[in-house]
Amino acid sequence: MVPKHVAIIMDGNGRWAKARLLGKAAGHRAGAQALRKLATEAEKIGVKFLTVYAFSTENWKRPQDEIDSLMNLLRDYIQQYIDDSKKNEMRISTIGDLSKLEPDLREKIRDLESMTLAKKGMRVIIALNYGGRDDIVRAARKAALAVASGKLGSNGLTEESFGQFLDTSDVPDPDLLIRTSGEMRMSNFLLWQTAYSEMYFTKKLWPDFNISDLNDAIEQYRSRDRRFGARKD
Ligand code: IPE
Ligand code: IPE
Ligand code: MG
What we know:
Structural class: alpha/beta
Shape: globular
Helix content: 40-55%
Number of strands: 6
Number of domains: 1
Bound molecules: 3-methylbut-3-enyl trihydrogen diphosphate, magnesium ion
Strand order of the largest sheet: 3-4-2-1-5-6
Distance between the termini: 21 Å
CATH superfamily: Decaprenyl diphosphate synthase-like
CATH topology: Undecaprenyl pyrophosphate synthetase
Oligomer: single chain
Number of helices: 7
């Protein structure tokens, strides 16, 4: 079975650029291209949800010129996705705290989200200024408000109801989590949501990751025995 929801930590753009004596911006551009191509192919093989880590709450610690080039790249790509949306069925949405992004960029993202809202194809979820801890803390704040206002009894706070306050409230948990570039850590990605996701790590750098790599990951996923803590025999 093809995993319904694939989440990807797209890492290695910097190293990809360095190996070619290029600047970081060129690496990120190649990474953005790789995503655009892979999304189309992932949809063809039957993936229903694709969540990608594009910018973390910690990535603000990078040099300002790299942040600027990432944000500009995002501007270009959002425009491309807006153009693409006239001919494809992908629904694009975001998770993360967009309030820290420039207002024009935020507005473009909101346009893209509303333009593709009714699309029936694969859902692409772009994590922007996303942190797993930040997601949980923002959800906890919303839950506290709901309890304080009497909308939710404190006993009504369960794993299910809490999940409704997370950015991913309308998305099933990822079945498969992929990280490229050889690092084996979560780097504050979907901490709550990956409680039972299958993990797949590859040394391939993100701009080089293609559909055959995704198929390899899926093949390995298929061979895993997902027990969710239960006994199967
Ligand atoms: C991932 O590539 C993209 C972002 C974090 C935005 P990196 O830029 O982290 O690439 P490396 O880890 O330096 O190779
Ligand atoms: C994770 O990669 C964030 C994204 C891919 C957007 P990083 O490159 O920022 O993570 P660390 O610093 O290696 O943990
Ligand atoms: Mg990195």
